[in-house]
Amino acid sequence: MEKAIITNIQGYSIHDGPGIRTVVFFKGCPLRCKWCSNPENLTPAVQIGFMEQLCRQCGRCLKACPHGAIVPGQGVYRINQEKCVACGFCVQACYYDALVLYGEEMTAAEVLEKVRRDKMFFDASGGGVTASGGEPLLYPRFLYELFAKCREEGIGTCVETCGHVSTQALATVLPVVDQFLFDLKHMDNKIHREYTGVPNHKILENAKFLIAQNAKVLFRMPLLPEVNDSPQNIEETATFLKSLGPGGMNIQLMPFHRLGQSKYDALKMKYEFENVAVMDSSGIEAVKDLFLSLGVKCTISG
């Protein structure tokens, strides 16, 4: 029985595929995007986060931790990561939700049990379940098992992917995926590596593979000011999409936001886009208009 580390199962999402979706967040990612809004999903291991602003210094977590990993006192980070084994006892003891457990090992059957609770919304809206992360295709056999069960129950399936995965993983899940949401972050290999930690060759190869297999793919671009919003990158992205044929000539812009910054604080991680300005609506519309003028269908995510 396949298992995966899941950090959250979020209902009633309308931005992660058609209709109303339930989004399952998988832990672990091969990229290290400097703007990532889900830093808790970067590493595959279970982690404990500390929300300092919620802590009331009651001391219950100190007594609950069997490994001496809780650091007492104000003005200090609460968790000694060298001692912490992410057992979660401190999370259970905290009355104020200042400690949070990021990750839980689950089976496909356990995930399905939670997903199917929203089936009435799926049926009414043409929605379903979306696997996100992190990178869900790090768990291809788990994902196949989950989505096969979803299809048996008439639940639509969708995968959000960074594309930097094995082509075999894509081939494994292809028969049970209704739609792929596929990120294209930058066409310049050097810049892509600078901001994500990996080159873009495999991503572009996998994009070509999916289109060649007649998969339904919506390409998406996290729109990042002064990183990938230049006319040159937009034109190169449009050229690549048009090279894929009719199945690839669509892209959705996802404007940059800083909504995940508090999670960096909780995990004592540096947020490198802290001072990057959010793009105004006119700038976003200008990028959309450029894609449209180049013959690529373009929408903006809400």
Query: Going across the major beta sheet, what is the strand order?
Result: 5-1-2-6-7-8-9-10-11
Distance between the termini: 37 Å
Molecular shape: globular
Summarize the amount of helix as a percent range: 25-40%
Question: Helix/strand-derived class?
Answer: alpha/beta
State the total count of DSSP E strands. 11
Strand content: 15-25%
Shape-level CATH architecture of the largest domain: Alpha-Beta Barrel
- CATH homology superfamily of the largest domain: Aldolase class I
What is the mean pLDDT? Answer: 95
Main sheet attributes: strand count, strand direction, barrel closure:
9 strands, mixed
Q: Number of DSSP helices?
A: 11
Number of domains: 2
What is the CA-based Rg, rounded? Answer: 20 Å
Outline the structure in words.
By secondary structure, the protein is an alpha/beta fold. Helix 9 links the parallel strand 9 and strand 10. The protein starts with a strand and ends with a strand. The chain folds into 2 domains: 240 residues, Aldolase class I (TIM Barrel); 56 residues, Alpha-Beta Plaits, CATH 3.30.70.20. It is globular, with a radius of gyration of 20 Å. It is 32% helix and 21% strand. Strands 5-1-2-6-7-8-9-10-11 form a 9-stranded mixed sheet.
